[in-house]
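Here is an idea for our session: we take a single protein and study its fold together. Start from the sequence, derive the backbone structure tokens from it, and show both lines together. Once you have written the record down, we can walk along the chain together:
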Amino acid sequence: MGTQTQIDVRVIAKDGKYLGNDVGGALVTIHDVQTGELLAHGSTNGGSGVANLMDIPLPRYAVLPVDEASVFTASLDLDEPKLIRVTAYGPQGAQQSANTVSQTQWVYPGKDITGGAKGGGLLLEIPGLVVQVLNPPTHFLPQTAPDHIDIRVNVTMMCGCPIGVGHPPWHPAQFEVKAVIKQGATIVTEVPLEYQENEPFDVPSQFAGTWPVPPNDTGQPAIYDIIVFAFQQKNGNTGVDRATVIIPVPPASDAGGDS
């Protein structure tokens, strides 16, 4: 029997808060680097941290507080020093935007890596943005060929924190959100998506725009990809989602009728 050694793993969004239960947390796996053996796995559990987490100034040698922060705790049975690889995948509640990050760390039997109540343990930072296309749904097939399609997306930090005028520090002006319309390998057009500041009930994180659909005169349904990206200029955080639309062939009368 070896010595039980505790390791606390927390996952935080780049320029955001901890990945808590409200975004499904993060899946954590711990492997032996030298043998590939899976030593522990599970999901972080808890909240996104204290309310004022983003306002806490820290010198480089300090650690973030972990009050109300989600954590995955592993107890490893070690009989010798071991080089481990800790990997986090998340957020699990937004699979289309989830990213993976990992780091290696030597652990020694009986030397817990927890850091205590004021912070510490292992902290992995997940880059990116959560981008979800709300409209149109993928494989959207209207009954008749539309002259336009409204595109609406939801964009948040990887911790689920909202973007909005009233939600500092994530002001919409920091983010470029755009829909790229492609047919096959050809880019048809790009549609800037603007923050919807006048949404009823002050709904944050919503960006929208309108795509004028070109006439379909090919004689067969036209398939388009809608690829939406969001980009945070100050740190490179990027998120992507996509949908597909199928524009039907217009009736013969709409196409000009018989000659």
Remarks:
- Residues 49 and 67 are 6 Å apart (CA to CA).
- The radius of gyration is 23 Å.
- The chain has two domains: 3-126, 129-247.
